[in-house]
């Protein structure tokens, strides 16, 4: 029987969502520190930052957190929330390393765009870092265009926009 992807909303504070948030944050933080300081993230800092970002922006009615499952195993996330009545922001697009290259990221972003439209968004924006080259390539492939900054997030280096 072939394995299938499923993508569905999940509460931002569910055990599955929290475990994937930890995996996401650990990977992007470690990647930054290894690139800039030659080390992994300090464990105290990692715990502090994971705890500081609840994900409440992904709660209905103005947001949604999507969980991707492959063969019923939770393997990824994408979150979308409204910044204003017509602009949604895409965040936390992530797949566990062993699941990359299997089409899950395209499915996650497409599902997030669908949910953004359902929230009333006419456009979707996101930010990322220069070193996250895989993410930047994905967004370009899916029709996102580089844009002016829409936020002042500390680690944001690239901003993208797409009309829905």
Automatic annotation (TrEMBL):
PANTHER family: AMINOALKYLPHOSPHONATE N-ACETYLTRANSFERASE-RELATED, AMINOALKYLPHOSPHONATE N-ACETYLTRANSFERASE-RELATED-RELATED
A Pfam match: Acetyltransf_1
Signal peptide (UniProt feature, chain positions): none
Key words, A-Z: Acyltransferase, Transferase
UniProt keyword Transferase present: yes
Protein name from the UniProt record: Acetyltransferase (GNAT) family protein
Ranges for domain N-acetyltransferase: 19-164
GO molecular function, one term: acyltransferase activity, transferring groups other than amino-acyl groups
Keyword Acyltransferase among record annotations: yes
Matches recorded under InterPro entries: Acyl_CoA_acyltransferase (IPR016181), Bact_Acetyltransf (IPR050832), GNAT_dom (IPR000182)
